[in-house]
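Hi Prof. W.,

I finally got the Flagellar hook-associated protein 3 FlgL prediction working! I wasn't sure whether to trim anything, so I left the full sequence exactly as given:
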Amino acid sequence: MTNVSTSAFYQNAISSMTDLRKQTEKLQAQISTGNTIQHSRDNPLAAAQMRALQAADTLASADKANASAAKTQLTQTDDTLSQFTDILSQITTLTTQAASSTLNDSQRASVGQQIGAFYESLTSLANTKDAQGNPLFGGQATGNAYTFDPTTGAPSYNGTSTASTLSLGPGLSVTTGVTGPEFLDFQSGGVSKNLLTTVKSLADALQNPTSTAAAIATAKSALDDLGAATSSVSASQTVVGARLDWINTTSNMQTQTATQRATREADVGGTDLAATIAKLSQQMTVLEAAQSSFVKVANLSLFSMLN
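And this is what came out:
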């Protein structure tokens, strides 16, 4: 009879302390992870909701990375287009001087040399590389966006017809750049022209004029072309600026949605730290008391109990 009672006492005590220990470990896990749901069996419905929210978080992280990459690409594009605009402004100023009859042929040739130097800068800008080493204005191609005829200097576009597009979320996307032809090719006087070709031809004509009158006429005609080319570059800058604004708008939307998801996750499976810590402290006290009592009772000998 005594053996049975003693055995039952041990079994019940150990079982009780085991349950208390498991509850304590569960509370500790909830505090360390911030989640009340450690296993699907804890709350199957809430666990399913948490998985859906966490999957949405993963997709949102990819969208956020895409937005950052697109913003970097478009910012570089905008900065480079600004350099095109600055150079075009200086070329236009020089061309205005060349169109004046106050310059002699030697002075006009000197202007042509300066424009020729700017042409080299423009060809370098046209082959600008992005952070990954791909052509900034080559669409989705690799290598250089443009190659140039070694004899005439005529440009040939090697890129694709469109720039890359990145997803910013369900139903949302942005084109990450512009191709060379989108801003270097333009219309002037109803004729399709290319900025690089126009500047190269102008520089050559001013350095090697067939006559003073011809050089002046070339400069005057080039002013209209340069104005149209500047408008083309400015139009692309406007497009790029609009895309950057779109990225900022979608990023704000992503931030708001992420905040809503975080709130929902906290409601569904988040841990109330203050309440859980208090409960853990209470549970630890109960466990320690149970262990202490068990040790004391277990140390009582049959002689002590009879005595």
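Strands lie at 146-148, 155-157, 165-169, 172-175, 185-188, 191-194. Does that look reasonable to you?

Thanks,
D.
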